[in-house]
Amino acid sequence: MTLDEKLKNLPISPGVYIHKNSDGKIIYVGKAKNLKNRVRSYFQSNRGHDAKTRELVRRITDFEFIVVDSEVEALVLESNLIKKHKPRFNVLLKDDKQYPHLKMTNEPFPKVVITRKILRDGSSYYGPFLPAALARRTLDLINRAFQLRTCDIEIDGKLPRPCLEYHLKRCLAPCVKELCKPDEYQQATSDVKLLLEGKNKELAAELEQRMWHFSQTENYELAAKYRDLHKTVLALAEHQKMATTADRDVDILGFYREKQRLALQLFTMREGKIVGRREFFWEDLDAENFDASEFLGEVLAQYYSTDYVPLEIHVPADFADREILETVLTERRGRKVKILDPKRGQKREMIQLVENNAKIAFEQRFRVLKADTEKVLGDLQEILELPHLPTRIESFDISNIQGADNVAGIVVFENGKPARAEYRRLIIKTVEGANDFASMNEAVFRRYKRLLNEEKPLPQLIFIDGGKGQISAAAAAMQTLDLEMIPIVGLVKPPRKHSEISHLLRFGREDEPVAFEMGVPAFRLVQQIRDETHKTAIQYHRKRREMRDFTSELTAIPKVGEKRKLKLLRNFGSIERIAKATVEELSPFVGAKTAREIFEHFEKQRNLAIK
Predict the structure, then answer these.
(1) Which residues on adjacent β-strands are paired with residue 279?
(2) N or C, which end of the chain is more exposed by having fewer CB within 10 Å?
């Protein structure tokens, strides 16, 4: 059926239409009260169309439609299809992150991680946590107080000894059968579940009962443990503020735009207090035909199709489908939901406050101003689901040419900034030929064996420049040192690219790669760390190669031993400068006779080159 025939057969019912290009790809999804009138309007005289619509029409070669019973159903279906297909000509809700949740994994020996993704994987999710820092504080408390494991290794109870986390009293060590029985670990897991479900009183009562039991049996060590846990849980109950369904739950939106770029902020008010915010960014809007009301309508429909619905939403401008969206959200919430565009008073002042914050976010995102370090590190912790805030990060890279001059570069970042005094360079000693896996294993083992011997700080995160093979080699070295609790992440490059990162691989979770987004501050930090590591390794490799070339060149000259080589290198700096030096310039360092021999050696090479 041709396009004209399809247009003639369109129904007058409400529904959703789907435009496609010549490749069959969906390029736009829209809704209509009357499909026949709305779709045909695209192909009539386009004098009234803006530039974006004219370009869309030029690319349409086919369309489909879905009939529904009402405009409300059309709005919901349109939003779902946009989120699924991400058509080029729709306004897409980008950087759509969920509030941080804590996830208890679905494993025989569960662990708790911080995450922004909720998957149907059998795990238990708790939250959302507002503000985001509360999720990190709660996770830290769980690790310290209840001592659930934080590593990604397979737990079978067969390991001969525990890692460092056990000795620091931050893990029950279920990996060692003699140290932690399964029922003991499951009890700790059940306690954490009660905590995360907000059943603080029940948990406190249970902990108090255990405290008195062990006290009466004169097991004072366990009694003290449960006494401290009891105090911790009671203190947490007083400060815990998670998302609530109280009457004063309001979302407030504001945005700031310059040409095709836009930053939108959404502030979350719970019980009359601002408790969190979210940021969204666009870089490819139609600058000439931007319509604030149309933009807000599309964004709100997408955002609240999956997220928590408050009782009030305050927006900076009204939009056409406001009443329809109110109906959809009221059905989802089960109570009346209002979308307001206040013109004056305190509510309008709050929108202006959000807009001011959106402008600051715009500056930080698009003008690359200094981002808040703690926030960047917190975002990185959430993205990689790390057990601790990565205040100290170390990164490794191997550099060689077909196995020659094999070296490793190690860089250290503290609080998001390079700690150059702690950079290290290693000569790989035990590996012959080009074997990056074995080289990485040696570098990681030597690095952390030394840190342990010298009792120096360990990192909360290790980056490895490479894929699955490199991170497996690094993990094997860490396990030998009982340091498998430190997360290892591989920085994977696409084929034939030297500087770009395509995705991140977490050891133990290689089947869940993390896509790399250069526009996100946390990923920009990762790129900076990777570039520093690569530069450090390459520079050291070149230096070693120059030294080798220098040594091998002078070795061919009689009477030039090791001492004279070093003396010449210190004073001339390179083989090129020695080769160009005169007898008079060389004599003070090696004597006149040897200086003459060196000069004649390089003179002979120059003559051969001319021939």
Answers:
(1) 265
(2) C
